[in-house]
Amino acid sequence: MEKTKNVLLAHGSGGKLSQELVRSMFVSELENDLLNRMDDAASLNIGGGRLAFTTDSYVVSPIFFPGGDIGKLAVCGTVNDLATSGAVPKYLSLAMIIEEGLPLEDLSRVVQSIKAAAAEAGVQIVTGDTKVVNRGKADRLFINTSGIGVIPEGLDISGVNARPGDVVMLSGSIGDHGMAIMAQREGFSFQVPVASDCAPLNGMIAAILAVSKNVRVLRDPTRGGLATTLNEIAGQSQAGITINENAVPVKDAVRSACELLGFDPLYVANEGKMIVIAGADDADRILAAIRSNPYGAEAAVIGEVTAERPGKVILRTALGARRVLDMLSGELLPRIC
Q1: Is the separation of the CB atoms in 270 and 197 below 8 Å?
Q2: 145-181: per-residue pLDDT in tens?
Q3: Ranges for the PurM-like C-terminal domain (predicted)?
């Protein structure tokens, strides 16, 4: 890809350019053992225990969309990042950058959504910050949330842990969030409405960890979608990952919308799904635990970790062919989270 001297929207896509920017600009300059792991949450040894710590910013446009809004998205996204380390999410910060002119009614609606999402996830908002900027200097409302959770003793869940022979599971259908944002933003309507899957998944993770001690990796496939997230894990673990196209759940409405607009659902963002990589002996128990959660009814085994082609993801297509499934290249849908 051509080098650029300026930041592009594609640098925020979650794909190759995002990876290059993070590694070359931030990790290379600020490196330490915790940052270098490149997990969604850092695992910190403090006072004899372990804490998970994460932060994220939300700039989604529009701020209200089918299935959620920027407030629900901020709480769920940070809770899910904490849960990917196996942590029990406890406390969140809430920083808001508000553009002058935003109706107070809209701000109140977002705050009520934050309150409801935090209650469902069992977390408290314990600190925050508010800034107001001039008209035209932001896009209605941006939110930053940081989160702290407690990691139970004995857990070591990280993107570096995938091993050949492990099973790759997915908690449900892909592409719902990205296509819901796209439809709302562009004014598209489909025969069957598409809604975001935005949801807190810490309850699901707790159920998984209650039935298995062999969970290696947990990761929510947000920006860049399932394909990019699996590539991140394959790179971190230096293992191969093979998935079966027929096994990946995709709702008919999402598939139709993707075909109409020219998107591949494997690269479309999700905000309420989880990739689980675990020892094969525990796969049935874990799958049952996921399906017992309200957000995991469509869970499926979608592939396995292999010793072949370390760092690469292979797709077995519906026709039986095999092809390399690369990381997202360039910009697909900006500002979807």
Answers
A1: yes
A2: 999 999 999 999 999 999 999 999 999 999 999 999 9
A3: 163-314
Token output for 58? 């939300």
Cβ neighbours of 105 (radius 10 Å): 7
Task: Quick: pLDDT tens for 289-301.
Answer: 999 999 999 999 9
DSSP-assigned beta bridge partners for residue 147: 54, 92
| Cis amide linkage into residue 62, ω under 30° from 0 | yes
8 Å CB contact between 327 and 230: no
d(CA 178, CA 269): 5
CA dist 293 and 61 (Å) reads 29
Angle (deg, nearest 10), helices 252-261 and 176-186: 50
pTM above 0.70, yes or no: yes
> How is residue 293 written in tokens?
């959660």
